[in-house]
Amino acid sequence: MHFKKISILSLVSVLVLSSCSGKKEEEKTVYENTKFSKSTENTVHLTEKQIQSVGITTTSIQNRNMEKLVRLNGKAVIAPSHISSVSSIMGGHIKAINIINGSRFSKGQVLAVVEDPQFIQLQQDYLVTKAQLEAARLNFNRQKDLNTSKASSDKTMQAAQADYATLNATLKGLEEKLRIIGINAKGLTTGNIRSRINIYAPFSGFVSKILVNNGQYINPADTLFELINPAGLLLELKVFENDVNDIKTGQEILVYNNQNPDVKSSASIVSVSPSIETGGAATAVARLSSVNTAFVKGMYINAEVNISSRYTQGLPNEAVVAFENKNYVFEDLGKSNYKMIPVVTGIADDQFTEIIKADYLKDKKIVQKGAYSLLMMLKNKAE
């Protein structure tokens, strides 16, 4: 009985040890497989047929002069100082509107006609005051002569002088009021008094809004039209964080709209926002070098900025691929094996992309044509 007990205990011990040993072997195998997987996760192997299908070609790191071309986009806006609200100095009824929304006008053009009896009254007051002033002038001169000979008291002469000065000030005020509403007081007579005044364009531009209609009564505080002076056109452009340090005030840029991408106009940067806004971009403001009617308020605008060139190392654009906000190239390892290598890129032009600190790529064969296809194969392999 005692022997049996020892045998059972020995058997259990053997089984436990075997189980532990098997578990360790299994864990070791899993670890080794995982390690092997990590060592090959950035490489891809192609068959001969795949190589022919993709058409892989290789290149190497190159030294060259490069210019950074920064592309911006945004909208055309009008500076507040060049948006004008037009109103009538005096109230009245709208008798004519000579413009439509979006139409262009020239400085001095009649935009609208306003009619009211108070215009007649103002002209009448001017002519009456003018006649009274002439009479006061004659009386003052007469009293001055009489006072010289002591035939008139100082008090009488001073009263005549005050009347003359008062009427002269009143006339000047009425003359200025007439000037503001567009009536030339110097040429006003009893034969050309009129009941209507014209609203003139203060500059050349185009109509943004018309807020009145014929027959409507307007008050002096009412806005009739909103006018835009194209000389105040500005371009608000988004500058992403990677390009903020390259965009400076005073830089010359080329701008174009989506309707005519081949027709580019010159402009210059007039200000750059010092902060990055929500969305990861700052705002740069540019002004056209000359007025261009092809650009209007609210239009989407594209811009190109050439940054000073520098001698650097780079690769053809198609050799550099992007994945999850990082850039990569593929090294040809030989025997149809290709390895993905992370790179840090700098400036780029239409053909080449700068590679920062590219010495580790020297003498390596880098895939040019087919790099994107390799990225897709590697991505699918990982999935």
What overall form do the CA principal axes indicate?
rod-shaped
% residues in beta strands: 35-45%
Number of helices: 5
Q: What is the tally of beta strands?
A: 22
Largest β-sheet summary: 6 strands, antiparallel, barrel
Spell the H/E element sequence.
HEHEEEEEEHHEEEEEEEEEEEEEEEH
Spans of at least 5 consecutive residues whose pLDDT stays below 50 are 1-39
Rounded to the nearest angstrom, the distance between the terminal CA atoms is 61 Å
Name the structural class: alpha+beta
| Global mean pLDDT | 85
Roughly what percent helix? 25-40%
**Strand order, biggest sheet?**
3-12-15-14-13-16
Report the radius of gyration as a whole number of Å.
Answer: 43 Å
Task: Give a quick precis of the structure.
With 383 residues, the protein is an alpha+beta fold. It is built from five helices and 22 strands.
SSE map:
Layout: H1 2-40, E1 43-45, H2 48-54, E2 58-59, E3 62-78, E4 83-87, E5 92-97, E6 104-105, E7 110-115, H3 117-148, H4 154-180, E8 196-200, E9 205-210, E10 217-218, E11 223-228, E12 233-240, E13 252-257, E14 265-272, E15 281-288, E16 300-316, E17 321-323, E18 326-334, E19 337-343, E20 345-348, E21 352-355, E22 366-367, H5 371-382
Antiparallel strand pairs: 1-19, 2-22, 3-12, 3-16, 4-11, 5-7, 5-10, 6-9, 7-8, 9-11, 12-15, 13-14, 13-16, 14-15, 16-21, 17-18, 18-19, 20-21
Helix pairs in contact: 3-4
